[in-house]
Amino acid sequence: MLEMIFISVCAVLCGAESYAEIEAFGQQKKDWFKKFLELPNGIPSDDTFRRLFAALDPRAFSLGLTGISSIN
Questions:
Q1: Are 1 and 15 in contact, with CB atoms under 8 Å apart?
Q2: 8, 49 Cβ separation under 8 angstroms
Q3: CB-CB contact of 19 with 46 (8 Å)
Q4: Could you tell me the CA-to-CA distances from 61 to 13, 34, 45, 66, 68 in Å, in that order?
Q5: pTM, entire model
Q6: CA–CA separation, 22 vs 7, rounded Å?
Q7: Are residues 22 and 11 in contact, defined by beta-carbon separation less than 8 angstroms?
Q8: Structural contact between residues 27 and 43, judged by C-beta atoms closer than 8 angstroms
């Protein structure tokens, strides 16, 4: 899951605006990502990225990105 979030954040910072674009970015940069990530099953599909973000609690994810340690 953390690998997918890392790929997603990198892709969005580089201009990706959809799950398909996140997957395409991951595929284009696969060799670079493999320097830092295990990726035992390769770059996930756009559907897998979609399912991950649908399952995440948006508030908790946002708080995690901003470094706030508690949810009130």
A1: no
A2: yes
A3: yes
A4: 16, 24, 21, 9, 10
A5: 0.85
A6: 7
A7: yes
A8: yes
13-40 tens-digit pLDDT: 999 999 999 999 999 999 999 999 999 9
Instruction: Say if residue 21 is exposed, middle or buried (CB neighbours under 10 Å; 0-12, 13-18, 19+).
Output: middle
What CA–CA distance (Å, rounded) separates 30 from 12? 16
Q: What is the end-to-end Cα distance of the chain in Å, rounded?
A: 24
How far, in Å, CA of 9 to CA of 70, rounded?
22
Task: Please give the backbone phi and psi of residue 67, each rounded to the nearest 5 degrees, phi first.
Answer: 85, 5
